[in-house]
Fold:
Amino acid sequence: MGSEIARKHPALPFLNEKIRIMSIFLALPVLGIALMIQTGIISWINLLSGGADLIMAILVTWSLQDRVKTSWYWAVTAGLMVGYVSGLPWYIPLAGYLLVVGAGRLMHRRVWQAPLLATFVVIFIGTFGMHLLTFGYLILTGSSFQFGDVISLIVLPSTLLNWLLVIPVYYLIKDLANWVYPLEVNI
Amino acid sequence: MKSTFPRSLQTAFIILVVVGFVMLALGGYFGSITNWFGQITVGSQTWISSRFLAISDFFTAPRDMASLRQRNIELEADVARLQTQIIDLQQQVTQTEILSALVDFARTNPENTYKAAAVIGRDPSPFLRYVIINVGSNEGIVRGMPVVTQQGLVGRVEAVVSEAARVQLITDQISAVNIRLKNSKTEAILNGSITGDLSLGMISHDVKVEPNDVILTSGLGGDYPPNILIGQVVSVSNREYELFQTASVQPIVDFSRVEFVLIIINFQPVDITPLLPTPNP
Structure:
């Protein structure tokens, strides 16, 4: 059947490849603008000492879209961008965002019928994972603070803010995914 | 019937009478009469004009309604545009006031050379207290330069690229600043924390530290110039079983609202790393 379609429409594989490349390069403007919004606006909005992470929200929702196959590229791009801007070493955000996308892809296979619920679960896992990585790095480099303080003052408030942020982001990214990957047409 | 006066004499008489009236008028002898006449004529004219306009409006108003609506829309658009301009101008006034205060601060501290910068962002990680400023190595900024506002110490430049720099605030949890207490003439270390609160450490038990003591940079260690205001002591914790006293500090700078900063560009931080003892193998 597939070979028959390919024989009738020889341009189809090239079209899919074009969409895939566009989807990879789309990460640069989308995540670049998101990083500017993150550093310029969202980082100033705090709950206790926690803050929302727009980049993480975008990566989570992108990785949970049905037809998206480029979320790993987006994770690497986001990790390097944030690593360049942040005071953390580049490999911490990179590892954190790869973890987030990994959790997203895994969750997409398991709970694919409830995408918003999966989004909340992955945001929860991602926030904890990212903050535990940061916490571990800071402890190893000589900082001293209480794990309980980190959970109550940073991780839990950040999770709540990320849950609030991810709802509008989910619908925006869903529209973006539908634009990049148009619905398949019966040929 | 022929007139008894010749024609030229009549003309001369008329001219004489007219000139006489004019002279009397110029001399002010007709003031009350002209006022009275003027009031009557102007009042009458006003009455007639207002009635004419009222009648005219009555007949032309329905025809002008569309143009009035159009005009109203245009004026509302103008009002919206002007309100936007007012907001912009108010923002510019606020920025000008801040910059003016920074300029005043720079003038009153002529021993330093400053470079002004705007704060354009904050570190994405909630664990770190860094801000991003819009000047970098192209403007002569290098790593380690102290950053202040007109109120007091903000932090120091931690990383630089060509057009921007990252500033570590003194509230960052790995920040440590050598300070001196102005009243008790003692030195201590100011530490940041994960919550952004500031605390003093390394204060000996025999030193009397009191709330409201003013905190200044000491200049020890070569990281910051001396005598930059930081804040004041809020409370002191003096427990006998601890090696040192500790104190919580209220910074003078509101770090949540820092918009513009000054970088002290003529201060070269001292690298004391070669002086630190290395463990023998």
